[in-house]
Structure formats: C-alpha cells, structure tokens
Design brief:
The protein has a domain at about 55-88. The chain is built from six helices and no strands. The protein has helices at about 5, 10-15, 20, 35-50, 60-65, 70-85.
Amino acid sequence: MKSGGAMIGNQLWRRGPLWLTKVDEWPDDKTTLPASESKAEARATREVFKAAIELNDDPEQIFAEFPLNKVVRIYAYISRFCITVELK
C-alpha cells in the first residue's frame, strides 16, 4: 500500500481511469422494473398499514400531550423546513 505522499504524483489516483472522462465509453445504465409479485406484496403491505393507523386530526390533543414550549419549537422547526424546501 502506498503512502499519501506517493499518491500525489499518481495520475490514476488524481484523475481516475481514462474511461471515466469519456462519457461515450461509459457502461450502459441498467434499470430493472418491479415484478408483478413485488407490486402485489407492496400493495398488500400498504393496505395492512392503512388499516392499522388510526388518524386523529384533533389539534387540541397535541396541546394535551405536550407542553406548549415543545409544540411551539416543533412548529417552528417544521415551518423553517417548509420555507427552506420552497426556496430550493
């Protein structure tokens, strides 16, 4: 194994293999499509989770479970995140 000082002059280390600089010589991208069995399994999993989750959209429950300062802090974090996402 070479030391870090020996790698400074090595062109392969600094620039990588030659084929990497020639885009037309890159290997073809291989994409795979999901099989019908995996689609059916994913659909069944989603349905099980959908049945298991109980939605409660009552905002009053949030204030009952958490202190006000924590609710405000989480709301501020979510607001900053949404604004950051919109700016990008």
